Amino acid sequence: MTLVQNFPFFCIILSMFSAIISFPMNHRWAMRVHLIMVTVVLALSLCVLGYTASTGESYTFMMGHFPAPWGNEIRIGVLEALMAVFFSLIMLLSVLGGLAHIGRELKNSRKNLFFILLDLLMSSLLALIYTNDLFTAYVFIEINTISACGLIMIKKEGRTYVSALRYMVMSLVGSSLFLIALTLLYTITGQLLMTPAKEALAELVAAGEYEVPILVIISLVTVGLGIKSGLYPFHTWIPDAYGYTTPSASAILSSLVSKGYLFLLIKIFYRVLDFEFVVSSQVVNLLFMLGILGMIMGSWLAIKTQNIRRMAAFSSVAQIGYIYMGIGLGTTAGVVAALFHIISHGAMKSLLFISISGLSEVSDDKSDFESLKGAGFRNKLAGVAYTVGAMSMIGMPLLTGFISKYLFASAATTALQGKMVIAWIALAISTILNTVYFMGSVLTIYHSVPAEQRKPHGMMPSRVESVGTVGLIALNVGLGVAATPVIQAIQTGLAIFG
Amino acid sequence: MSKPNPNYKGSAWDKFTRWAKGTYDPADGKLESTPPKDRLSPGERAERMLREYDQSRFEEGVAKEIGAFQIISRIFFVLMAVFMVVVLLYTVSFLPAFGDPNSPVNNEVSQRYIEQGLEETGAVNIVTGMILDYRAFDTFGESCVLFVAMCCVTILLRADKKNEIRLRVREEHEMLEYEPQEDNILQQAARILVPLIVIFGIYVVLNGHISPGGGFSGGAIIGTGLILHLTAFGVGRTRRFMNERVIKTLTVCALTFYCFAKSYSFYTGANHLESIITTGTPGAILSAGLIVYLNICVGIVVACTMYSFYILFRRGAI
C-alpha cells in the first residue's frame, strides 16, 4: 500500500485531532489550527484525487487489523476524493469569507468552541464521504447533527435558540428513522459493512424473502436522510437555521452539512440497496415528485419573503429539490447531474451567504430589502459577488449554475417520457421563479440612491474576507468554464461507486 | 452655442442622466420590492403598529388563525404516529423470531467474534473486544460525540462574566432557601459513599476487558460519585480538585492518547505492518493490548462530561 492511499485516513484523524487540541487553546490558535487543518486536508485530498484518477479504480482501507465484515473500513474512489476536495475547499473559503464576522458576532469565550465544532464537522463530512460501514456513518451523522446544532445557536440571540431547537427536533427525527432502518437491515442481513450487506441483500431479493422489511428499509433511509437534508415537506427548519446564525455557519450549513447527508443517501442507494432495485421499488418516483414540489414551492416561498438571508435559505429548499429531482429520474445521468449540483450549489450558496453578510454590514446590519437599497454601491466587492452568485443560481452561461441546469435538462431525456416532460416544465418554471427573486434582489442592491447613501455606513470587510469572497467567485466561474473534467471525474467515480 | 431643447425634460436622455446621477429610477414602483404606498419607514411603521396594538384583538386573531391549524396539525400528528406504529409493527412481524438460531444475524461475523475474539483481541469480555478493537473507529467517533456534546452544552450554558456574578449571587440565595447547606446526614453518608462509588467506577473501568463493564459504564459511575461529592460538600470543595483546568487537561489528554494509539493501530493494520501491541495473557489486568488503556480514556471522557454537564446546568461555569 502506497503512502497516498493512507491520506484519506490521515484527513479524518487530523480533523478530529485538531478539534481535540483546540479545546484548551484560545480562539486565535484554534482559528489557526482550523485553517491549517482544512488546507492540509485540501492538499491531501487533491493527492488522493490524482492517485485514484490515475489508477481508475477504488480501494478499501482497513481501520485496524481486521478485514471487511469484522472490522471498520473506509473505501476511496474518484468520486469520494472529488467530494472531499470540494467540501474542504468550500469550507476553507466560507470560513475565510466570514472571519471578521466570527470575530465580531461571537463572544470571546465561545470562539474557540466555534472552531472545534467546525473541525468536528469537517471530520464527520470526511467520514460520511469515505466510510464503507453503515454504523460508522450513523456515528458521524450524530457528530454532524450536534455540531451543526451548536453552529446554529452559537450566536446566542433570541431566534437562534428557537431555530436550533427546531433543527435539533427535525434532525433527530431523521436520525432515528435512519437508525431504525439500520437495525432492520442488520436483522435481515447480519452485516453492517456496506459491500457485504449488498451481497446479502441481493441474495434475499433474488430469493424473494423479506419483501416488506426491505421496502420499509428503503423508505425509512430515504425519508430519514431526506428530513435531515431538507427535502420539501420537511424543510420547515431551513429558513430559521440558515437565516440567523453567523454568515460562515450559514454558508457551511447550507452548502456542506445537508450535502453530506445527500451524498450518504446516494452512497447507500448504490452500495447497499442497489440503485436498480431502488428504481424498481418506485421510491425514486416519490423522490422525484417531492423534488419537483420543492423546486417550485421553495422558489415561491423565496419570492414572498422580504428578508434577503431568508430568501437565500428558501432558495436552498428549491436547490435541494433539484438534487432530489435528479436522483428521482432513476438514471445514471440523473445521479451525475445531482452529484454535480451538490458541488455546484455548495459553491453558489456559500458565495451568496458570504456576500449577503457583506451587503448587510454596510446597511446597518439589516437584511430586509428596504434597507439594502444601493448596498451594491456601498460594498462593491460584495455587490459583484452577490450578482455573480445570483446569476449562477439563475443559470447564466459561463457560471456553474448553468452547467447544473444543462445537466439536469439533458439527464431528463434519459428518463421515462412522462418524467422528462414534467422535469423540463418544472425546470422552466423554477428558472423563471429564480429569475424573479434573484434579479429582483440584484436590482434592489443596485437601486439608484442619492450620493450620500452610496458611502458605506458600518463595517467594511477585511482583506481576509475579500480573499474568501474572491476565491468563491473564482470557484463559481471556474466550475462554469471548465466543468468537463469534474463531470468526467463524477462519471468515472460513479461507475466504480457501487 | 446650442439651444436647450424645449422637450428635454422627460426625454430618454434626461432620464438616463438623472439615473446616472442617482435621482431617478426606472424600476421604481415596478418591482415587488417597492415599499408600500404610505412610504413609512420601518421605524414609523412599527410605531403605528404599536399605537394600534390591541392585545385582545391580537389574541382573537391568533386564536382564529392558529386554532384551526392546531386542531388539524394535532389530528395529522396522531394519524402519522399511528401510521408509523402500524407500519413498524407490521414490519417486525416479518422479521426472524428473537433467539432464532437460523436468523441471518448468526453468520460468519458474530461467529468469528465469539470463537476467535478472545484469541485475537485478548479480551475476555467479547463486547469490549468488539467495540474497542474490531470496531474501534466507531468508538472513537462515540467519544467525539461526547466531546462535541460537552462543547455544545458549554456554548449554551456557560455564563458570561457579568451574568456569572449575578448568577452566583442569585444561586447562593437560592441555595440557602431550598438546598441543604452543610447537611450533616448527607455529608456523613457522602464521606462513606463517594470513595466507594469512585473506587467501584475505577474497578469497572479497569476490568472492562475481563468482566462486564468498561469505559462508558465505569465513567458514568465515577461521574455520579463526583456529582454526589459536589452536592454534599458544595462547589468550593469540589472545585479544589475538579476545576475547568483539570477537566480540560483530562479530556484533552484522554482523547489525544486515544487518537494516537488508535491511529498507530489503524496505520499498521491497513499497511499490514507488524504492530508492537500484543494481546498478553487473557484474564490478566494488563492484557488485551490497547483495550485497557482505551477503556481508561473513555472512562475519563465520560466522567468529565457527566460532571461538567451537571455543574454547567447548576452554575453556568465549571
Strand count, sense and barrel status of the largest sheet of chain B are: none
What is the string of SSEs of chain B from the N terminus onward? HHHHHHHHHHH
Terminal-residue CA separation of chain A: 22 Å
Write down the oligomeric state. Answer: heterodimer
Radius of gyration of chain B from the CA trace? Answer: 33 Å
Q: What gap, in angstroms, lies between the N and C termini of chain B?
A: 83 Å
**Helical content class of chain B:** 55-70%
- Unreliable parts of chain B: none
Large-scale geometry of chain B? extended
Number of helices of chain B: 11
Helix-strand sequence of chain A? HHEEHHHHHHHHHHHHHHHHHHHH
Content of β-strand of chain B: under 5%
**Numbering strands along the chain, what is their spatial order in the largest sheet of chain A?**
1-2
Strand elements of chain A, count: 2
Classify the helix fraction of chain A into a percent range: over 70%
The number of distinct structural domains of chain B comes to 2
Radius of gyration of chain A: 22 Å
Average per-residue pLDDT of chain B, rounded, comes to 80
Would you count the extended β strands of chain B for me? 0
Largest interface: chains, residues each: A-B, 73 and 68 residues
Can you characterise this structure?
The complex is a heterodimer of chains A (498) and B (318). In chain A, 78% of the residues lie in helices and 2% in strands. By secondary structure, chain A is mainly α. A two-stranded antiparallel sheet of chain A has the order 1-2. The longest helix of chain B has 38 residues, at 55-92. Chain B is an all-alpha fold and 318 residues long. In chain B, 69% of the residues lie in helices and 0% in strands. Chain B has helices at 12-21, 42-51, 55-92, 108-121, 126-134, 136-157, 161-178, 184-206, 215-239, 244-270, 291-315. Chain B has 11 helices and no strands. Classes of the chains: A mainly alpha (498), B mainly alpha (318). At the A-B interface, α1, β1, α5, α6 and α7 of A face α3, α4, α6 and α10 of B.
